[in-house]
Each structure stands twice: as C-alpha cells, then as structure tokens.
Amino acid sequence: MTRVHPHVEAARSVLEQLGFLRAQRNDRSALCLLALLNLKPDDAWHDAKAVLMGITPIMKFAETYYGVSYAPNTRETFRRQTIHQFVNSGLVRRNPDDPQRPTNSGKTVYQIDENALLLLRSYGTHEWNSKVNNYLINRPGLARRYAVERTKQLVPLRVDASKSIHLSPGKHSKLIKAIVEDFGPRFVLSGRLIYVGDTGDKWGYFDQEGLSELGVTVDLHGKMPDVVICEQNKKWLVLIEAVTSHGPVDAKRKEELMSLFSEANMGLVFVTAFPDHGTMKRYISEIAWETEVWIADSPSHLIHFDGERFLGPYEQG
Questions:
Q1: Nearest-5° Cα angle at 18, 13 to 24
Q2: Domain boundaries in the chain?
Q3: What is the distance between the alpha carbons of residues 197 and 201, in angstroms, rounded to a whole number?
Q4: What is the CATH code of the structural domain delimited by 155-304?
Q5: How far apart are the C-alpha atoms of 39 and 205, rounded to whole Å?
Q6: Are 49 and 36 in contact (CB under 8 A)?
Q7: Which CATH number fits domain 6-153: 1.10.10.1820, 1.20.120.530, 3.40.109.10, 3.30.420.10?
Q8: Beta strand 227-231 with 191-196: parallel, antiparallel or unpaired?
Q9: Residue 276 CB: number of other CB atoms within 10 A?
Q10: Closest alpha carbon to 211 in 198, 224, 201
C-alpha cells in the first residue's frame, strides 16, 4: 500500500479542524489545499504562499509533486465538490485578480484568502490551536463579506416590473442585459421574456410555465439560445445568440435551433447580437442568411441578412 505523504494527512486534518464536511476532507481536497498554498513535499507549512491557480494546474500540481493523477474529466468534481465549498467558506477567493471575469472562463483562478494564509502558516506551531479558534470565530463574518463582494460583481437584470435576477459577471452577461433592456423594447414590442442563459448557471431565468401556455415545448437537453423572447401579438419566438467570444447564428446553429424548437406553433426569428461593430466584423462571413443582426452600441438599428423582409420569421424548407 502506498503511504500517503504527511502533508496530505496534515491537510486533511486542517480541513477537519476548519469544520469542513467529510466530503471535503479527502485526499482530493487536501491536494487542492496544498496546491493553492504551493506547498511541495519538502516545504514547511510556514513557507506557504497564496498563489493564483486554476483547476487544471491544481490537478497537475498533485501529479507532479505528490504522484496522484486524476483523469481530465474529473475537473468538474474538483470544482463542484471541493473548490466551490472552499470559496463559499471564505477559505479561497475566486478571481481576486479580476472579479469581473466570468465564472465559466477558462482563465478562472483561485487563491487562498490572506487571513487563511496567516493561519495555515502557523500549522504545527504552539500558536495553531488558538489561531484556529480565532479564525473560526471570525470566519462567518468573512464569508458573509466575501459573499456581498461577489454579489456586487453580478450583473443586475430586470425581467419584468416585479422581478429581477443577477447574472454572472462578464462581458457576455452585460450583452445579455443590453439585449433584454435595449433590443427587446425596440423590436419586440409585445415581448414576453421566456428564457435568459447565464455563464454561471445555465438556467439564469426560464419561464417554462409561460412557454407551455403558448403551446411551445422544447427539448431541455438541447443547447438553448442565450435569450428567448415571445412576440405575443405576432406569434413569434425570437431566438437570440449573444456573441462576445463564441460564434453567431450560422447555418449549423440555425439548424440546431430549428430542431430544438420544432414543436413550436409560432414563427421563429433568429438574431445574433454583438457588443460592437469590431466583434461583428470577426464573424460576419459566418452569419446565416434569413437571420438578423443587432449591435449593442448601435441599439436602434438592425442588419437584415436577406432583402425579402425586415424582422420576422421565414418559411422553412
């Protein structure tokens, strides 16, 4: 049987003393903690550092320095079953270098909180027990403060007169906000917001009951567009993709959306939304015919990728 390195055992003990549940007191979580402290096998705890590190580098650290390999498809397990709890407790900060970075960004990094770092550097000393007690007394306040800070970074979005939601921070969410608050009132006059996606939560907002009332069903396993608005008077479903880093409604995506909403007894309108003209220029050759383009920095205009008509559904097939 391979002997577990003393640092891994110590990290598990630390997590237990900090009050983490059994699911976060395993080797995976211990190795995450060691990686975020940049604590290699020959390092002492007082040498711990607060490094910025993403999930994949954490896994690589575990393999390189502690000989523990994890399959690439376990990244989500690391994020959801260890790092998520570390962040919520205030032990770890998410994207302290750029709080506006979207949650699902490939550049997302994590860092040990400075208060936790000071505590963990004292592990193994005569001061440890008293410092743990003081840390645990203060931690609820720290966690609440960080939760408030994270909330401040969210993008507020008014769904209707009585309901608001908050989207994950980032350019994508800001564009979605513009679609709902600027595009909708201008071009979908009797619009009812049905769906808004979110980079941090696929179902940022979904009026599934409202969609059913309109006689529309969709396969919820399909890839939804970023925004769905129902034009109630004209019986249209306006399907909108927000493009900040991924592609527009091209021919392939148009086919996917037609299949996803194939049971809808309403006309389908396809819209690609860009934040600015520069972004549109990068994708203009990919945009499908018989679709529309809206640019947030020119909110009162539409670009029609066909001359037959302005905004409206086309006969398919």
A1: 70
A2: 6-153, 155-304
A3: 7
A4: 3.40.1350.80
A5: 42
A6: no
A7: 1.10.10.1820
A8: antiparallel
A9: 13
A10: 224
Model confidence pLDDT, tens digit, residues 148-194: 555 555 555 566 655 665 666 678 888 988 898 889 888 888 888 88
The predicted structure's pLDDT at residue 11 = 96
Which residues have a Cβ under 8 Å from the Cβ of 113 and sit 6 or more positions away? 50, 90, 91, 92, 93, 142, 146
Show the tokens assigned to 66: 């502690």
Q: What is the secondary structure of 127-196 as a DSSP string?
A: THHHHHHHHHHHHHHHHHHHHHHHHHHSEEEEEETTEEEEEPSSHHHHHHHHIIIIIHHHH-TTEEEEEE
Digit-coded pLDDT (tens) for 262-312: 878 888 999 999 999 999 999 999 999 999 999 999 999 999 887 555 666
Contact 170, 101 (CB under 8 A): yes
What's the one-letter identity of residue 112? I
Q: Give φ, ψ of 80 to 5 degrees.
A: -85, -30
> Are 6-153 and 155-304 in the same CATH fold?
no
pLDDT (0 to 100) of residue 10 = 95
Which residues are bridge partners to 191 per DSSP?
231
Checking if the pLDDT of 112 tops 80, the result is yes
